[in-house]
Sequence to fold (190 residues):
Amino acid sequence: MSAFVALPLCALAALCGLTVRVGFLKTPGGRLRLGVSAGPFRRQWTLSLSRAEGTIALRLTSDGQEALLPLARRKKKDAGAPIKPALRFLARHVRPERLEARLTVHAGDARSAVLLTALFEGALSALSCLRPDLPLRARVRCAFTGPGEARVMGIFSVRAGHIMLAALLFGREYCVGRLRAWKNTPSKTS
Fold:
């Protein structure tokens, strides 16, 4: 086998096994931080909401660079149709590595604080019972005098090969949809 064929195939096989990790962290008083790592490569962003051109946008800040992503819905009804099967496939292969929630509930009066604490504790306990494989560590407590706080953190991983397969699935669904639309469009006679 030629080196021009073998070398890219070996690189592709090694890349398919690479683990991609996505993590998020929300600390009290801080903004939401998002990080992505693939092997030795890492990238982190700070996320916040802002207004851009009359619509709500997501502001991504990283190393002095800033980008705005508008959160407006598209007008086309079937624009997201090809991405749904790809996201479903990818969601089946995402593995949670670490989930942590530390909540301090303050609701103004003691009765409301205790009720909200019990509600959050029950919801997190139900989640742990429904999905025992989740590495969830949760601590919920009342704050009768101080402010309420939330520290939420999570790390998820997926193989790069699964991301590539999801992209191929998206491409296939997109091409099939375009062909279907082309075949179902009546031709105009001159």
